[in-house]
Amino acid sequence: MHVTLPHGRHLTRLPGVRVRKSRHVTPARTGGLPRVTVEAAVINAAQRAVSDRQAALLMVMSVQQRLTTGPRLLAELASRDRIHRRRFITLVLRDIADGAHALGELDFARLCRAHAVPRPSRQEVRHRPNGRTYLDVWWESHRAGAEIDGAQHGWGLRAAEDSLRDNEMVIGGEAVLRIPVLLLRTDAARVMDQVARFLVSREIG
Known about the structure:
This is DUF559 domain-containing protein. The chain is an alpha/beta fold.
């Protein structure tokens, strides 16, 4: 268990309890055991993570699980004076606030910047005969998008459902690239080269 105390306060050491001192303790306005807000806990965990990747995972999971939102985390970050890895946390939270909901999507956002690929919108709603669907990334000017597929996309009927959705997009004059997250992490240069050429091929006018 991690216990956060304001600087100047002391607590008797107990087995299994790790005490951390902070100059920024914002108690949550709830009944029961006093605790910090979700946003404060996430920012604290992100700056104490063992790596940037672990920090990104902690932040994106808190939003993915609907415990908080990107804008609320950004507001919490802005209220702090001193934060370890502030630049990295700010960059990741901006991507999350823009709609990135998984590590693969965060990786793709970073690679778009690194390879000068136009910035896409995220979690774009597309209307299909069988209802609404959400695309991970979308370039409206090209009527094109990309899906960052985790391992779960190969399970059961998920791949078949994805194919039906992709077919509907092609029928409607749109297009989507499917990018396995494993490929994105092992051969990013080739993936981004394909993305760049894909967008050129989809230029309209």
